[in-house]
Amino acid sequence: MRINSFFYTLRQGVRNLFRNKWFTLASIATISSCLFLFGLFYAIVTNFQNIVHRAQEGVAVYVFFDEGLEDSRIQEIGDMILRRTEVSDVHFVSAEDAWESFKTDYLGDYADGFTENPLQNSANYEVYLNDVSMQSALVTYLESVDGVRMVNRSEIVATTLTGVNALIAYVSVGIIAILFAVSVFLISNTVMIGISVRKEEINIMKYIGATDFFVRSPFVIEGMMIGLIGAAIPLGIIYGVYNMVMEYVTARFSMLSSLLKFLTVEEVFHILTPVSLGIGVGIGFLGSIVTVRKHLRV
Amino acid sequence: MAERRKRRSAVPEKEIITLTKVSKAYSTGAPALKDVNLHINRGEFVFIVGDSGSGKSTLIKLLLRELTITSGYINVMGYDLSKIRHRKIPKFRRNLGVVFQDFRLLKDRNVYENVAFAQRIIQKSNKEIKKNVPSILAIVGLAGKYKAKPRQLSGGEQQRVALARALVNKPTVLLADEPTGNLDPKNSWEIMKLLEQINESGTTVIVVTHNREIVNAMQKRVITLKKGVIISDEEKGGYIDED
Ligand SMILES: Nc1ncnc2c1ncn2[C@@H]1O[C@H](COP(=O)(O)OP(=O)(O)OP(=O)(O)O)[C@@H](O)[C@H]1O
Ligand SMILES: [Mg+2]
């Protein structure tokens, strides 16, 4: 395609946008609201997942040893655990460490009465996982290891977190699918109205010898622009809203901030921007190409 | 390449339009054209006349490949129109110019853009457009009105714009379906004179008309249709009165 033909086509596409203003606005508004919901949802979900992820990292499995197990075997077990792929970190907590932290956490000054460590047998490994869903498998494995007396875990946390993660994934896929369908339908309608409004012009183009591609391109460009604008607007709004909410939350609930680490606006938009724009333009392209293929045969 | 050679051998070079036993039936009613045989040579000027409903517009639409024939053989400019591939149709139509009774201009664009439109569609460069459009507007006598919108023009002027648009891509064949149907006698004559002038510069011109006076005066080949059948085909013919 010649460069001036390309610009001509582009201009026609933009012209189409303005020619049926109300339908254009309606489709932009709908795509905007859909992608706004998507963006909002994404911002919340990524933050939530971030928190869940941190929580996962905090869920440890505690491995206790047989009484009087020699240090070399304990060392061996530690190395073995660390070699497993689902394990992110292993800490050795000696009996003395355990007693110290117990004293500071629960006994305070009353601890002076003890002359011997009452937690003789409490040396253990704190094992952290990459993925909580692997916890059961790891525990089964650890229980079979020679020299391991007991494995403690918090099963409820693990299953809840895994469940929440799966739920988030399903809901996201569901919402995105519905959103996608509604938007494609809307763009398709807008383009169809554009085609019927310009029926006469299209007919003239056919007589003169326009190719299918030439006749169709402006409508596809129209659809893609609607998608692009429809994606850009909610991105702008969400950017502003997100910043405001973060400011409010950090100002009002400062004590929460150590517990719940929220993502920065940059961290969220780093992915949200290309994904939203991609979905917007993709929906626009799909909605218009389908319509144009069906209704515009030279 | 082979295809081209075959086309050439099928139709003599001189003959630009060939119809052999062509029939066209719409889904409803009697056939609009029946067993039509027609040969038109390069550079001819042909009037097609006949009563309303005799099949004139149907014939034009077949020549444009807007419609396909029901049976027979039709060849226009070397293209076998019952076999032409869909993606070849644009290329075929680029060698045809068409004008209609109702002008069919783009109402939201000025005269210049209406004519330039035809060149943009065949993807001419801006440089060529800037050269070709004013020169064709000068030929149809509208050089001074290139900025006007269609609604600011008289019927005769609008038809000149349509003619300029049909001619700017230098077609081999010009098809006109009642180009003077909406015009007064003076404008009708001017348009016909333009068509004659275009024909003299080498373009094959086929004009459907009801204008008895002009047909009789111009002394061109006249093909008369009646109920879908060619009832007369005369060199330097006249308008046949049935009633
Ligand atoms: N799209 C169509 N569907 C069905 N029948 C049609 C269609 N178009 C034309 N016809 C019929 O075909 C016949 C020829 O029509 P056509 O338009 O070719 O006539 P015409 O000679 O151009 O008439 P006019 O001088 O009024 O323009 C008529 O009987 C008409 O009713
Ligand atoms: Mg007619």
Count the helices of chain B. How many? 8
Major sheet details of chain B: 6 strands, mixed
Net shape of chain A? elongated
Helix percent band of chain A: over 70%
Percent of residues in beta strands of chain B: 15-25%
Mean pLDDT metric of chain B: 91
The name of the CATH superfamily of the domain at 15-92 and 208-237 in chain B reads: P-loop containing nucleotide triphosphate hydrolases
Summed up, the helix count of chain A is 9
H/E element sequence of chain A: HHEHEHEHEHHHH
Low-confidence stretches of chain A: none
Q: What's the story with the biggest beta sheet of chain A?
A: 4 strands, antiparallel
Which CATH architecture of the domain at 15-92 and 208-237 in chain B would you pick? 3-Layer(aba) Sandwich
Q: How are the strands ordered across the major sheet of chain B?
A: 6-7-8-3-9-10
Number of strands of chain B: 10
**Percentage of residues in DSSP E strands of chain A:** 5-15%
Please give a structural write-up.
The complex is a heterodimer of chains A (298) and B (243). With 298 residues, chain A is of the alpha+beta class. Chain A is 72% helix and 8% strand. Chain A has helices at residues 3-19, 21-58, 71-83, 95-107, 135-144, 155-197, 199-208, 212-252, 265-295; strands spanning 60-65, 87-93, 124-129, 148-152. Helix content of chain B is 34%, strand content 25%. Chain B contains 8 helices and 10 strands. Chain B is globular, with a radius of gyration of 18 Å. Chain B starts with a helix and ends in a 9-residue tail after the last strand. Classes of the chains: A alpha+beta (298), B alpha/beta (243). The A-B interface holds A 1-2, 4-5, 8, 200-201, 203-212, 214, 297-298 and B 64, 66, 86-87, 89-94, 96, 98, 104, 106, 117-118, 120-123, 125-126, 165, 169.
